[in-house]
Amino acid sequence: xxEAPAAPHAVSADPAPSADIxxxxxxxxxxxxxxxxxxxxxxxxxxxLQKFSHDRTExxxxxxxxxxxxxxxxQTFTRIKAIPSEGVPYTDYLAPGIIAxxxxxIAIFYGIQIIWERDAGILNKLLVTPTPRxxxxxxxxxxxxxxxxxxxxxxxxxxxxxxxxxxxxPLKLLGVAxxxxxxxxxxxCLSMTIAGIVLSRxxxxxxxxxxxxxxxxxSNALYPVxxxxxxxxxxxxxxPLSYQVDxxxxxxxxxxxxxxxxxxxxxxxxxxxxxxxxSLLGRLAR
Length: 286
Known about the structure:
mainly alpha, 13 helices, globular
């Protein structure tokens, strides 16, 4: 009697795993740091701006000071013609300087926020993530730049209502936005660098108040560099605020400027500021 034929091997009804689901069977390879950095910077910048969206009173209160500069200082010195203004009305000459001043005032105390995050335990949690320290600093720096950009738009509206002759060329306005963001990023990094040195909100407030007005008056925001004494001209030439104001004047009201030099100096200053603040971030978190 012949043996019964062997039963065929059971075949699964499920199709064989394809290459499309291979990622479900093995973890994806981590992206290189340089590829991860932009995404982390954008995410951290968005987080910083969400804080601002919950409380917009800062925007209104900070608009008071530039309005007073343009309404009182600008209008008065336009009448008495005491300051040379490169052939344009003094209010027109002053408006770009006030935009730069407003951006600097927002950014120069940005280190207080990172000290508060240290005290609340948030900074330590961020530092144990795979996010590079440079991404943390860059995200915060450019978030301050976006805040300054909103403030700059307010000053532009006030200046336009006062009759200041500003350009509305879209490319020039885009250049204005880049200048404001780069300048604010540098001053925010300067503030965070000081925070990493002094480690205290009270001390940072003192340093911020001590350097804010000297930086402002040692720039070309209120008057041309040519009317300054020699020693102040030297300081003005190493002051990033001077290059920011020069670029804003050239883009907004068309006065002679050195845009290539201005953009180069601001980009280099922002990069150096990010490097300095990143190197001190670990000391701040101790």
